[in-house]
Amino acid sequence: MADTTRFGISMSQDLLDKFDRMIQKKGYTNRSEALRDLVRNALIEDMWEKDTGTLAGTITIIYDHNSHGITDTLTHMQHHFHHLIISTVHVHFDEKNCLEVLIVKGMAQEIKKLHEKLSSLKGVKHSRLSVTGII
């Protein structure tokens, strides 16, 4: 890694001990790997908050497919937001419920808008948004 820069960090021994226990539990082989992940997560969170850069992620919903008109509404919304949706996966969770995962890519504000619209639909029981980006 020719472009790697080394730098020092000062912290209390107690905080370092807690950090070491956490990274060991998660399977990191060294502190540098864990710190790089923390920095990437912070930078992606900053992109999300400031709506800068292209993000990708998933919107996962569970809904009652017997709820009046929900399947048509979901299809309509997916067509309306086609510029954000890369792919979808539909799973019959049980006799009454469906799980749908939308893989999305775009600006934070647009992804948030889609998630809010999907979450607020009558018949949607739960939704979760997860985003990431390239740093």
Automatic annotation (TrEMBL):
GO terms for molecular function: DNA binding; DNA-binding transcription factor activity; nickel cation binding. It comes from the Bacteria. The keyword S-adenosyl-L-methionine does not apply. Keywords: DNA-binding, Metal-binding, Nickel, Transcription, Transcription regulation. Binds 1 nickel ion per subunit. Residues 6-44 form the Ribbon-helix-helix protein CopG domain. Transmembrane segments: none annotated. One of its GO terms (biological process) is response to nickel cation. Residues 56-132 form the Transcription factor NikR nickel binding C-terminal domain. It holds the Pfam family NikR_C. Ni(2+) binds at H79, H90, H92, C98. Its cofactor is Ni(2+). Belongs to the transcriptional regulatory CopG/NikR family. HAMAP family: NikR. Transcriptional regulator. This is Putative nickel-responsive regulator. It comes from Thermosediminibacter litoriperuensis.
